[in-house]
Design goal:
Elements: H1 18-35, H2 45-53, H3 55-62, E1 66-70, H4 75-86, E2 90-95, H5 98-110, E3 114-119, H6 125-139
Length: 140
């Protein structure tokens, strides 16, 4: 039996995460469009989810632009580099490990993307200054 201070949790009152909220918004819009007599909603739930998650925005933001990704030889940096390249960016890959950097560069180029590798230890301020000067000279 629920206490007088805490209401009973129902599907309508429970907390939702961002993905659940996006899905609920999409379904509410679709239901509203159907109730208004439209045979299909103006935006599909999938299209609304893509807009909420920003996949179309990434292409608009980076296509044809230079994007610098640090830590690009593995992990999150590598994944981000692949996403930017797939969205049409010219990806400048920066990492310490030259062999891993070459592997990521080859992978991006193999998928039709543009990647330029630069080896730099970002814990060394002099190396950072040199990299920044080189990138400014090459890309403006």
């Amino acid at each position: 039996m629920p206490s007088a201070q805490q209401p009973e949790r129902t599907p309508a009152t429970r907390r939702r995460g961002p993905a659940q909220r996006a899905r609920a918004v999409a379904l509410d819009l679709a239901d509203g469009a159907i109730r208004q007599g439209l045979k299909r909603p103006l935006l599909s739930p999938g299209r609304i989810a893509r807009r909420v998650l920003g996949s179309d925005r990434l292409v608009d933001a980076v296509a044809g632009r230079v994007v610098v990704v640090t830590g690009a030889s593995s992990g999150i940096g590598e994944a981000a580099a692949h996403r930017f390249a797939a969205a049409g960016a010219i990806v400048v890959l920066v990492a310490r490990r030259e062999e891993e950097l070459a592997r990521v560069t080859a992978s991006i180029r193999g998928n039709g993307g543009q990647a330029r590798p630069y080896t730099c230890d970002l814990s060394d301020r002099d190396a950072i200054d040199g990299l920044v000067a080189q990138l400014l000279a090459e890309y403006g």
